[in-house]
Specification:
It is built from twelve helices and six strands. It is elongated, with a radius of gyration of 31 Å. A six-stranded mixed β-sheet has the order 2-3-1-4-5-6, with helices on both faces. 63% of the residues lie in helices and 9% in strands. It has two domains: 216 residues; 168 residues, Reverse transcriptase/Diguanylate cyclase domain (Alpha-Beta Plaits), CATH 3.30.70. By secondary structure, it is an alpha+beta fold. It starts with a helix and ends in a 15-residue tail after the last strand.
Length: 398
């Protein structure tokens, strides 16, 4: 028990050091509190010869149960999940307190108390295992499954203890001198508890790294890919297209006269317009199409396995969707100029971007609010859909 207390103390100190060096690491404040309570419980139990049994049982077991509750809260915070199980956790705490009172003041039966504590602990730990197994982000699968496995094992140990207590029971009722199985359970419980804490630290560090990667590759205003991430995606998709002989469409969208909006109404209104447009673009493209804010009021997207006509249809649908946007701030009406380029074998990311940019400026020079396509022969032409077939470009399918 003394060795376990030393290990817990070192773990708590380590958590404080990690939290100090990485203050944005999610869940660490809950983890520190959880294992500080566990350490306090061990210290209280060590003073059992000098304290009334009621205080030993009540405070020690309450600290252990609250350790599981706080650890569950830490897991929810790291996985960015609301703690929908908070009522169950509170019920577990209340039931444990009542069991402590009953054991020390009414029915001093160790078998009953051991069963009650193990059952409530198993329920609380199982909740954490459920959240880890069911609600992890795909990129956190490894650490989440590992932590969930440890929590599931810890819950199973408590279930085994409860079953053994029911059918065998301890040879005596003296809590301060545990029998052989109780000593073995305490050892395994200590080992799994430390393992759960270490697995949580791993999960939290992986989640922090994932968040940093997301921040580095996404635009903070819209949540779309940023220019750096888009250029990396463009290079990958071009390599794939050239290898398999498939065309890759590149659409460049620029909001018309956007500088006037910023100068007239201020940047907050301009930012809101950018957010609304990004939402429209996400609704008018496939999930497999890479969509990015290329800079300022420019957006760009990659269209996999798309020829010139299909890319033109998508571009016209986008242009029309932006033109028809309503409920914009201060009753604004906005339009967009669009440039389209489709890759041919041997194209590089630089040449494809150059072709789409040339097509975009052709749309601007021709009067804006239109789609221009860079043809395979490197000649630019303006794409103007016939009025009678305009509905074809509004179709959600292509």
């Amino acid at each position: 028990m003394a060795g376990y207390a030393v290990i817990l103390a070192m773990f708590v100190i380590g958590c404080f050091a990690i939290d100090r060096s990485m203050p944005n690491l999610k869940g660490m404040r809950w983890l520190k509190s959880a294992f500080a309570l566990a350490f306090a419980g061990i210290v209280l139990f060590s003073a059992r010869s000098y304290t009334h049994l009621f205080f030993i049982v009540s405070l020690t077991n309450l600290s252990l149960v609250m350790t599981y509750v706080l650890l569950h809260q830490a897991i929810c915070e790291v996985l960015e999940r609301p703690n929908h199980q908070i009522r169950i956790s509170m019920a577990v705490v209340v039931f444990n307190i009542l069991a402590c009172v009953d054991f020390t003041l009414v029915h001093p039966n160790f078998s009953y108390f051991s069963y009650a504590f193990s059952t409530t602990a198993a329920v609380q730990i199982a909740l954490s295992a459920y959240v880890l197994f069911r609600h992890y982000p795909p990129l956190l699968r490894g650490p989440a499954m590992f932590a969930g496995g440890i929590m599931a094992t810890l819950a199973s140990i408590h279930v085994v203890r409860a079953i053994v207590t029911i059918f065998l029971g301890p040879p005596h009722t003296d809590l301060t001198h545990p029998y052989l199985f109780q000593s073995f359970f305490t050892l395994v419980h200590c080992m799994l508890g430390i393992s759960a804490g270490l697995s949580f630290v791993w999960l939290s560090v992986c989640a922090q790294r994932l968040n940093l990667q997301t921040l580095a590759l996404t635009d903070g205003l819209t949540g779309l890919l940023n220019r750096r991430a888009f250029e990396e995606a463009l290079q990958r998709e071009l390599t794939y297209s050239n290898r398999h002989g498939k065309a890759l469409g590149l659409v460049l969208v620029d909001l018309d006269f956007f500088k006037i909006i910023n100068d007239t109404y201020g940047h907050p209104i301009g930012d809101e317009v950018i957010r609304r447009v990004s939402a429209v673009l996400q609704c008018t493209t496939r999930g497999s199409d890479a969509l990015a804010r290329f800079g300022g009021e420019e957006f760009t997207m990659l269209l996999r396995d798309t020829d010139s006509m299909q890319a033109a249809m998508v571009a016209e649908r986008i242009r029309h969707s932006i033109e028809m946007m309503d409920n914009l701030p201060v009753s604004l009406n906005i339009t967009a100029s669009v440039g389209v380029a489709v890759s041919t074998f041997g194209d590089t990311s630089e040449t494809l971007l150059k072709h789409s940019d040339e097509a975009l400026y052709r749309s601007k020079r021709a009067g804006r609010n239109m789609v221009s396509i860079h043809s395979d022969s490197t000649l630019e032409r303006v794409y103007l859909p016939a009025p009678q077939s305009r509905h074809a470009f509004l179709s959600p399918h292509r």
